[in-house]
Amino acid sequence: MDKRKDILQAALRLFVEQGFHGTATSKIAQEAGVANGTLFHHFKTKDELIIRLYLDIKKQLLNFTEEQAQKQKNTKEKVKAHYIYTLYWALDHPLEFHFMQQISLSPFVNQIPLEEIQEQKKAAIELIQEAMEGGYIQKLPTDFIHNLIGIHIFGVYQYILKKELEETPKKELIEQSFELLWKMLT
Amino acid sequence: MDKRKDILQAALRLFVEQGFHGTATSKIAQEAGVANGTLFHHFKTKDELIIRLYLDIKKQLLNFTEEQAQKQKNTKEKVKAHYIYTLYWALDHPLEFHFMQQISLSPFVNQIPLEEIQEQKKAAIELIQEAMEGGYIQKLPTDFIHNLIGIHIFGVYQYILKKELEETPKKELIEQSFELLWKMLT
Amino acid sequence: MDKRKDILQAALRLFVEQGFHGTATSKIAQEAGVANGTLFHHFKTKDELIIRLYLDIKKQLLNFTEEQAQKQKNTKEKVKAHYIYTLYWALDHPLEFHFMQQISLSPFVNQIPLEEIQEQKKAAIELIQEAMEGGYIQKLPTDFIHNLIGIHIFGVYQYILKKELEETPKKELIEQSFELLWKMLT
Amino acid sequence: MDKRKDILQAALRLFVEQGFHGTATSKIAQEAGVANGTLFHHFKTKDELIIRLYLDIKKQLLNFTEEQAQKQKNTKEKVKAHYIYTLYWALDHPLEFHFMQQISLSPFVNQIPLEEIQEQKKAAIELIQEAMEGGYIQKLPTDFIHNLIGIHIFGVYQYILKKELEETPKKELIEQSFELLWKMLT
DNA sequence: AATGAATGAGGCTTCATTCAT
DNA sequence: TATGAATGAAGCCTCATTCAT
Questions:
Q1: How does pLDDT run across B132-175, given as a tens digit for each residue?
Q2: Does B touch A (3+ CB pairs < 8 Å)?
Q3: N or C: which end of chain B has fewer CB within 10 A?
Q4: How far apart are CA C40 and CA C117, in angstroms?
């Protein structure tokens, strides 16, 4: 199980740095300190490796944000926790976050089972519904809201990265940007 | 100049459908009804073709939105025109819009001269500044605002595409989503 | 000894269906319900497995035809028994017969010790000699006769298989084809 | 068209010497004095190369025997010409003949269009029919006769090769073996 | 004897690019 | 400009075999 992890780790870094097609499986193996064939012992194809990596990372993120959101009591705080901790996680795991972004904008998304995607969105969608029913935010299609929030996070993340903000202004910007978002939704 | 256009057109479609690395230059040539080598008479390399395509498309979009924005008199209307006509153009030119998205999330962005990028953003940034100085929107880094607007457009575009909305609800959603954005920014 | 048999059985089927090079040792192991490495405990190499399989099968066929031929008293009946029971065996053991054919037309034949081959042919050659000396068949090189008989059997076998004959016409054809052969040789 | 021929020629030799799976496409290219990729410029896949080679060779053989058979007037002479010149051709083109044998006993046969096979047999089948209707040979399924003749040729060919016969005894054996065959069929 | 993870050489094929016509 | 045959590096993957458990 050790080598498998090494492979996933190496793959993550290389995929982000050079793209899916830009990184050869042989490079991944080499970087992981593993024989060429070992990669294919653990993952039938390069595609399978990519998908597996995506699912693993997505689950990590969801576990984290879910945990944080559940600590909150009122609805706005839950939404905020969801938003903010996603950003924190993203900034703490830039490779992982970039990779997820790469996937969702590539043809690979279509290889992820639809149920998997539904399952991933489920908690967030429920939270949005709760906020809508509680009168906290406007009545709009939940999918639409979910989309706006996700994209908003992505935009802020990108901005912070590009500007290379320090810890304090970073935290401030994140707080501020959530308030912008919340203002938009209420 | 005819064949050159055929090549660009074929390339656009294939790049969007199969990605940059997924489409061979030979396929592009074939699709364009052109000999294999002809492609390389017009574009020194595959990369040059990609960049050229991007710049052409970007210019088309900017010309269009600029023209629409200039028809408006007051600031909010200008911003709105910018926002809305970008979306309309995107929905009318899905291949082109997708392609631009693909580029901006790929390593190819780094091959686009920085001045080019600055030039592209210039008009939008000036408009944002104008709106900020006129007290219409909050004082925040212009880059940040620009980022938020751009990403917002992308999010709405994606949502519309996924939901396959009809003409009327589409128009309504676009209007509505601009109001959301504006609310956020003011 | 159980797993060894499973391996040989699986190998036989796969070799016939997909050829020697077309079937991976791992597939054989899998099909035999055995671990990958187990195969190499029983057979040092893939080649050894192939040769072993061939020798086993050849011995089975020879034992069977020998036994049948010995039940006969006069020479023609012996030759006939040899001919007919080879065909019956072949039709009862199509995988085994195919496999033998595959081997004899592949470079693997050269890996079978010459003495082994001599030994295998011995009984048949002696029978042919007996028939020749008894004046039943023409005086021609025994090897040549042996060759003609063998190939004749193969031809009839192939024809029966291709035409998917029923039991009765099959038996008739076999009898008839022996008479043709005999007519040729006398 | 030159390189294409070189490739076919090199492929023929190597396939016969080392089998289909035993010869790498890179070896073929190298042997043909051609770049690796050139092979795939002329043949989409290794399989296509194999099939193409088979069809080319088969056509050569058929052209030759057809031509010889048509020179004969009476039926037996036609059959004999067919038989004997096939053997001569085989002995003059051992690589080609071996290759054809290899194909017909491999899974590749199934990739040859059935009509193609029918077309190839057509002339021979018609000749057999003619001989049968003329009362020269026994009334048996034409396919069966065709099969027996073919296999007979193959047996004699193999025998001659193994024994490395000189020109004169070779010719004698061929004549003699035809008489054996004819005796069987009448 | 049995397992199955690990190996790495080698196979087939793709593809951007060149060049003689 | 246009063509398309030719190139050869590089990619993905397979597979016989080994070895620690």
A1: 999 999 999 999 999 999 999 999 999 999 999 999 999 999 99
A2: yes
A3: N
A4: 26
Q: Which of residues 22-61 of D touch C (CB under 8 A)?
A: 22
Q: Please answer whether residues C99 and C12 qualify as being in contact, where contact means their C-beta atoms are separated by less than 8 angstroms.
A: yes
Is A48 a domain residue?
Answer: no
Which band of pLDDT confidence, cut at 50, 70 and 90, is reported for residue C106? confident
Closest partner residue to D151 (CB to CB) among C140, C144, C154 is: C154
Determine the Cα–Cα distance for residues D96 and D99; give it in Å rounded to an integer. Answer: 5
Q: How confident is the model at residue D95 (pLDDT cuts 50, 70, 90)?
A: very high
Residues C39 and C58 in one domain: no
Q: Which domain holds residue A26?
A: 1-43
A123 CA to F4 C1' in angstroms comes to 57
**Would you state the pLDDT for residue D110?**
87
Task: Name which of A105, A121, A157 to mutate to probe chain B: the one with the most chain B Cβ atoms within 10 A of its Cβ.
Answer: A105
Q: Give, as one character, the DSSP assignment of residue A163.
A: H
Q: Nearest CB to A158: which of B106, B147, B183? A: B147
Same domain, C132 and C117: yes
Q: pLDDT tens digit string along C69-95?
A: 999 999 999 999 999 999 999 999 999
Question: Burial of A122 by CB count in 10 Å (0-12 exposed, 13-18 middle, 19+ buried)?
Answer: exposed
In this structure, the dihedral spanned by the alpha carbons of residues A35, A36, A41 and A47, taken in order and rounded to 10 degrees, is 140
Of D76, D185, D179, D177, nearest to D127 by C-alpha is D76
